[in-house]
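To: structure subgroup
Subject: Chain for Friday's discussion

All,

I'm putting the inputs and outputs inline so they're searchable in the archive.
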Amino acid sequence: MCIRVVAGKGGHDRYSLLTPELLEQLRLYWRQWRRHARPEDWLFPARLDPSKALDTRSAGRYFHIARNAAGIDKVGGIHTLRHCFATHLLEAGVDLNSISQLLGHAKLSTTSRYLRMARPGHSAGDRALALLANLPKVDGKSRPKAPPSSPPRPSPLH
């Protein structure tokens, strides 16, 4: 199953993978917090101006809040998820061209850098996206907390 991402990284529209469990969580979120929204509205709008999409800085803040709440102490920002996603797909046997299209890369050489990150002989197989099902469920009763006024400063990865 796929979900269409409008104006993703680089301003490009693309499709990404979507598990049935995550689809159910998105539907719950939409029914609970976005029930008066129109189909053309943003799934994750900006807090101060709902006619605009959630900006990348706020998304990064929400990422850090969730990471800290989960007790994850590894360093890295929201972009790290993109690298992990690509690496897990590669380890699961997905071909480089498909990963390139999912990430919206114009050149296959850009995607090929994930070859050095993949661990030979390590494969999550079909379990890579199924891991999302193990995350705690959102009950639909508590609204997500607003991001703090200033984001935590992660250490650089490079």
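Points worth raising on Friday:
The radius of gyration is 17 Å.
The helical segments are 20-33, 56-69, 78-91, 96-103, 108-111, 127-130.

D.
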